[in-house]
Design a protein that fits this description.
Length: 283
């Protein structure tokens, strides 16, 4: 098998970040809203998915991220710390990749795309939105995008409904190539919402694109104390000049599958599907 075998110590040096951190802003969380994030993909059913996301909201900042990402990423470090893994193997031969994937059900698998890698942070005071996508590919690239992004212009409708027992009102907006229908509640008068959506006189508890491809739906609300919101990146991070550059970098990265077989951890890079549907289709 054509491969590169790295010892545990070398691997840790490979993935650790030693660069200086650049701090942009910080805040403390007051409230957390948990959303289901549904992505439908009629082009390729395997790319449809449902993820559990969190929106942490402070006095001026918010952070929207995959609530399960840390736990999933820690599976690998836990396996290493307990001695389950002695060597890390980077598979380079396509034939070897196919052989490993044929028997994938019988092995312990750490699939890198089983969580959402991006975090969306907002500063509602100065209308800044920050996107960070971490640990792309075997080389563990991080990508950072800073946008001066004013709130969407919403049309508030007369329709109402109840979500989590909160009375909600309907609003519609056009944003980056898609039409969004949202339901917000003035019972929680915070100008916030999931992902990059905000600008209403209350918290957005549900939003979906009218093409039926994407949906955010609140599942729970809780008060949080003593958890910071930090917007920062390190000097090894690729800082993008605009959304197109950010999307081009993310799309160019290969999908990584990690498979544990006995005491070996195999890193396998596979080309991304061309059928991925982006949430933003305009600058």
């Amino acid at each position: 098998m054509e491969k590169i075998i790295l010892s545990f110590i070398v691997f840790i040096l490979f993935v650790e970040v030693h660069a200086q951190t650049i701090q942009i802003d910080n805040d403390s969380v007051n409230i957390r809203i948990t959303y289901s994030f549904i992505q439908n993909n009629p082009k390729e059913e395997a790319l449809s998915r449902v993820d559990t996301m969190a929106l942490d909201i402070g006095e001026k900042l918010s952070s929207f991220y995959d609530l399960t990402a840390s736990a999933k990423n820690n599976m690998i470090s836990d396996a290493m710390s307990t001695g389950e893994i002695d060597f890390v193997v980077l598979v380079q031969n396509p034939k070897d990749i196919n052989d490993l994937l044929l028997d994938i059900e019988k092995k312990k698998t750490f699939n890198s795309d089983n969580h959402i890698p991006f975090t969306i942070s907002k500063n509602r005071v100065n209308n800044m939105v920050y996107t960070q996508c971490q640990n792309l590919g075997v080389s563990s690239i991080s990508v950072f995008l800073k946008e001066d992004l004013a709130p969407q212009t919403w049309s508030i409708e007369g329709d109402t409904c109840r979500i989590l027992d909160y009375l909600c009102q309907k609003a519609i907006t056009e944003f980056r190539g898609r039409t969004y229908e949202a339901y917000f509640t003035m019972d929680i008068p915070i100008n916030e919402g999931p992902w990059k959506l905000y600008g209403l006189p209350g918290l957005i508890l549900e939003a979906n694109t009218t093409d039926g491809l994407f949906r955010f739906c609140a599942m729970g609300i809780e008060k949080i104390k003593d958890k910071p919101i930090n917007i920062s990146y390190d000097k090894k991070t690729e800082v993008c000049k605009d959304l197109k550059q950010y999307q081009d970098i993310v799309k160019s990265q290969k999908k990584v599958i990690r498979i544990q077989e006995k005491t070996n951890l195999y890193y396998i890079e596979i080309a991304q599907s061309k059928n991925i549907i982006p949430l933003e289709i305009e600058q």
